[in-house]
Amino acid sequence: MKNRLKPNIKVTASSYIQITICESAKKILLITAILAMSCTLYAQNVYTLKSCLEYGLENNYSIRISKNEQQINKNSATKANAGYYPTVDLSGRYSGTVNDTKSTVRTTNETEKSTGVFDNTFNAGLSLNWTIFDGFNITTNYKRLKELEAIGEVNTRITIEDFIANFTAEYYNYIQQKIRINNFRYAVSLSKERLRIVEARYLIGNMSRLDLQQARVDFNADSSKYVKQHELLHTSRIRINELMANDDVDKNIEIIDSIIDVDELLIFDDLWESTLQTNAELLKSERNVTLAQLNMKSVNSRKYPYLRLNSGYGYTFNRYETNAYRQRQVAGLDFGLTLGINIFDGTRRSQQKNARIEIENARLQRTQLEQSLRADITNLWQAYLNNIDMLKLEHENLIAAKQNHEIAMDRYMLGDLSGIEMREAQKNLLDAEERILSAQYDTKLCEISLLQISGKVLKYLEK
After folding, report:
1. Whether pLDDT at 205 is above 90
2. Where would I find the beta strands (DSSP E) of 185-227?
3. Which range has the worst mean pLDDT, 274-288, 322-336, 439-453?
4. Contact 37/234 with Cβ under 8 angstroms?
5. Residue 182, SS3?
6. For 177, which of 212, 233, 339, 372 could close a Cys bridge (C-beta 3.0–4.6 Å)?
7. Residues β-bridged to residue 421
8. Which residues touch 124 (CB under 8 Å, ≥6 apart)?
9. Is there a contact between 127 and 89 (Cβ–Cβ < 8 Å)?
């Protein structure tokens, strides 16, 4: 490439022509420098899709938050929180009184006075309260806590699947941007070669100044696109680092994959069957139906009697200054059973009606979600099939565009083709490459979405 930085002819024209060629050489040097920089490999951070996903699953903030929330639900799903176990309280109290007293004896009318009489009391006790039976409400509460624990697990799975789908899409977007920058680099090289040829022919009088200016405009336009593409590649790299939760979001990375591999062997019936069985959102909606049913049981439990055990052990110490006894100590055990039933509270009937509506709504939401998933997967499937057909057509178009460009270049070298026609052949080739790249990426997005809906997106961890 270095041998092409200068025209392959000896310049004997005017000083104006020499200055023009010098400026073109400077531009070519600048673009070549950018090309060299873009070819640099960041060997210290080479990733595959699997290694990126594994790292992200350990560090992504959304996943870590979701796992913490799942752990909270797990910690709460205990029999103690449901009310299976008794509560035991230990308490103590100290009190004192300071009194002035004046007493008159009935028989003698003698008066007795006491000033600053200080009496004090100390109490200590251990109490136990236990709801033995509460109309099956305790059992219902425990089942509700376990359902919330299961929903926490499903929420974590949803977060993980969203991360895998989003990261995989961005991973292949990064590959797409890399391929596109290579295409633009190729376009710059073609324009540079054309500019070199035109400059050479212009110097010997075989081409007009208009041809030279048009070749320079096309070269600058392609160079501008190439420079702009670096920004898009940089943005995608930032997004990848963000999803992986790297502290340095501008960290240099190198992805080992260089093509967008599309799975063309998906089967619709298998995807839909898997959706009905393993789709995380659908599983969550089923848990919500169960929660609504448990809420109904909790309301109905108030129709049953309740049985509670109360027991305690207490100790009391009194000290007197004027009493017949100087001090007194009392220790003892007390216990009792309470059996009762709620006859009327004025709210049960309305709560039962609302609970029935909540169950109906939960079931309707589940049905609505299934229908929505069916619509989404059907639309995605059609787009997936269309993109696969487009891929086949674009492969054929790309072959034809390459052959057409080769023929055009040969004719252009012989002087049988104008610069505009040569540019059109070049543009057709670049457009064909862009269309096939877009078709590949769009097909990959459909594939990712289909696998996410069907609960199979974890397969990207196996690659």
Report:
1. no
2. none
3. 322-336
4. no
5. helix
6. 233
7. none
8. 90, 91, 92, 93, 314, 315, 316
9. yes
Structure tokens at 332: 């003892």
C-alpha 343/C-alpha 303 separation (Å) is 8
> In the beta sheet, which residues pair with residue 128?
88, 311
Residue 303: pLDDT band (50, 70, 90) is confident
Q: Residue 3: its pLDDT value, please?
A: 37
d(CA 369, CA 377): 12
Does the pTM surpass 0.85? The reply is: no
d(CA 271, CA 381): 10
Q: Which whole number is the average pLDDT over 217-241?
A: 94
- Give the amino acid at 303: K
List the Cα angle 353/369/366 in 5-degree steps.
Answer: 35
Tokens of 233: 């590649």
pLDDT mean over 12-26: 39
Tell me the mean pLDDT in the region 122-131. Answer: 90
* Residue found by looking up tokens 């909790």 in the block: 298
Whether the pLDDT of residue 185 is over 80: the answer is yes
- Is the CA virtual torsion 367, 372, 378, 384 positive or negative? negative
Closest CA to 435 of 62, 109, 183: 183
- What is the CATH code for 2-77+136-305+346-462? 1.20.1600.10
CA distance 4 to 258: 28
CA distances from 447 to 51, 172, 266, 451, 462 (A): 20, 12, 8, 6, 16
Spatial contact of 194 and 222, defined as CB atoms under 8 Å apart: no
Structure-token match 């709560």, residue found: 351
The ranges assigned to domains in the chain are: 2-77+136-305+346-462, 87-134+306-340
